[in-house]
Structure to design on (292 residues):
């Protein structure tokens, strides 16, 4: 299997179908490997930690097939998502916006991190990004409730959920309410991930085509730096799937580097996780106040 842009045929149609099922790519299954199909391949490769080249080689094809037997069955079991079915939603029309909190990627079952992904190079601290994402998101969600801010924890289940499914859930809520804001929480990494390095700090990403996202990113980034005192890496434009595909202003926060020993230690602590959550909360307060 080796398919690339401008290829045509039944094999391309199969790849388009697999991409639609795996990441909800929204491709027209026409057997033509165009720019949209190439971008969907790149999205899939990035999600699954493959070489991001937009070419369907054997590794990408094999991962697409695996995604249908394992992940797709899991998504089918989740059923149709309804805001009223989510036990982790708090919407009482207390605030101008509904804040959708997304714990980045990462899945935990029975308290164990089971999703391949970024982690610190050595033990200790042996920190996994998915664990930190979920902890910060949980603390932020609790703080929002305590302050009567309408909010939804986007992935209440322990299992990992595809980016396509996350976006579908968020967009469904926004279509029903027309007042959502999306915050995706992540941790960063540099190099090959197998050794410590000096990369450090916090940055917040936004999509340049999403109205209101830049100001939202700047406000939250400023508060993150103010309270954590970490290096300010600034706000940056990015073509991340969850930023370009959501229908509402959306930002993605990288809250520190798993590959920097000092920050990995910090990220492993409840104190720092709660501090990050509090910092984002303060940014949310600012946005609620600015827009009223």
């Amino acid at each position: 299997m080796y398919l690339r842009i401008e290829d045509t045929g039944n094999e391309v149609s199969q790849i388009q179908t697999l991409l639609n099922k795996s990441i909800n790519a929204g491709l027209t299954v026409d057997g033509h490997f165009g720019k949209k199909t190439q971008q969907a391949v790149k999205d899939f490769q990035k999600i699954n930690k493959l070489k991001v080249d937009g070419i369907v080689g054997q590794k990408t094809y094999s991962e697409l097939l695996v995604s249908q037997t394992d992940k797709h069955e899991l998504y089918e079991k989740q059923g149709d998502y309804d805001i009223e079915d989510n036990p982790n939603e708090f919407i009482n029309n207390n605030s101008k916006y509904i804040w959708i909190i997304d714990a980045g990627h990462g899945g935990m079952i029975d308290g164990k991190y089971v999703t391949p992904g970024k982690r610190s190079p050595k033990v200790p601290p042996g920190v996994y990004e998915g664990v930190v994402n979920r902890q910060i998101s949980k603390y932020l969600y609790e703080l929002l409730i305590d302050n009567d801010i309408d909010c939804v924890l986007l992935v209440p289940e322990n299992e990992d959920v595809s980016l396509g499914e996350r976006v579908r859930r968020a967009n469904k809520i926004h279509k029903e309410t027309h007042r959502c804001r999306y915050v995706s929480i992540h941790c960063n990494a540099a190099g090959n991930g197998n050794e410590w390095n000096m990369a450090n700090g916090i940055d917040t990403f936004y999509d340049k085509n999403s109205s209101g996202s830049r100001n939202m990113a700047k406000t939250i980034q400023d508060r993150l730096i103010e309270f954590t005192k970490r290096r300010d890496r600034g706000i940056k434009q990015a073509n991340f799937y969850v930023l370009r595909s959501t229908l509402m202003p959306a930002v993605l926060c990288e809250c520190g580097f798993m590959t920097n020993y000092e920050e990995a230690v910090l990220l492993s602590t409840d104190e720092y996780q709660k501090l990050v959550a509090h910092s984002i909360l303060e940014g949310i307060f600012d946005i609620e106040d600015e827009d009223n």
